[in-house]
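Researcher: We're teaching a course module on how sequence relates to structure. For the next exercise, students receive a sequence and then see the predicted structure as C-alpha cells, so they can try to spot secondary structure elements on their own. Here is the exercise chain.
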Amino acid sequence: MAAAADALPVLSPKPSPAFVAATTYRRLELKYWATELQAAALLRLTKPHLELDPYCFKGAQRNVSLYLDTPTRTFYDAHLCSLPDRHKLRIRTYDEGANDGPAFLEVKRKVKAITAKCRVITSRTLARAVVQGQFDEALALAPDNTDLAEFVYLAQQYQVEPSLLIAADRLSLISADDGGQFRMTLDRDIRYQRPLGSHLQGFPGAWTPLDIWELNGDPSLMVMVEMKCAEYAPSWLAPVLSQLGLYRTSFSKYIASMTQDSLDTDVWAPLVNNGDGDW
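Model: And here is the predicted structure for the students to work with:
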C-alpha cells in the first residue's frame, strides 16, 4: 500500500475547467484490467504527465450512479446487441452520506468508437424530481440549461425508470501538459444494488460485490483502468501500456452488474467482451 501511495502524482492546485470541457462532450474511451502491482506501476510511470484530480486530494472518491432504463431495459439490450448508436442515462453522486451534495445528470451516447457525454450539475432535490417523472418542475428550475433539457427529453421519450445503483471507489487523474486533454481513472470495489424509488445513494447493507474474477478470468485483475482522450491518445501512453502488459478490453459496470443480478455467470464472457472496446 505504501508503494502505491508513494507513486501518486503531484497534486493539482485547483480543478481544471479546460479538462472538464475537453473530455466531457466527445471522447475516445480506453479500458484495461490491471492488478494492484500494475496499477501502482501505472501511477509511477504516468507521474510526469498526470496530476491528481483536485477532488481526490484525500484519496479515492466513492461514487454512486443510479442508472435509468426503460421498463423493458432498452439500453441494456442495445449494448448486448452491439448497436452502433446507443444511450445511457444515469445520475451520479459522490461522498456517500452527504445528502446535501450535488448530483450529476449524465447522458452518454456511443456512436461506433466515439462516446459523447453531456452532463449537468444540479441539486439532489432536482435529481430526485427527475427520477420521479416531475419533468416540468425540473425544467422550471433551470429553463435555459440545454444539457438538462437533453436529459429530460430522453427520459420522457423512453419513459425511463430506476434500473440499478452502482458504486465504486475512483481515483481520478488529469493530464498536466496539454490543457487537460486526457483523463485516467482507477476503479476498485465495484458494487451494485437494486434501486428503491428515487433514492440516489442506496443503503449500506444492500450492496452486492461485482464478481470481477468471473468477468476477466483472473482473480488478481481487480482494478478497472479507464482512459478518456479528447482527441487522440498522448504519445507517451503506448510505451507505458506495453511496458506493463496492459491490453484493451470491453467492460461496462452497468451491463456486468445487470447480468450478474439477473443471469448465470457463465453467460458473462460473450456479453462483456464484444470487441467494441467500450461500455
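Model: If you want an answer key for the exercise: The longest strand covers residues 161-175. Confidence is low (pLDDT under 50) at residues 1-23, 264-279.
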